[in-house]
Amino acid sequence: MSDESTTLRSVHLVRTGQMEYRAENGRGGVISIGEGQNTDFTPVELLLVALGGCTGVTVEALTKRAEPKRFDISVEGHKVKDASGGNIMEDLVVTVDISFDHDEMGQKMADRVPDAIERTHKQLCTVSRTVEAPTPIRVVQVRTSET
Question: What stretches in the chain show pLDDT beneath 50?
Answer without folding.
Answer: none
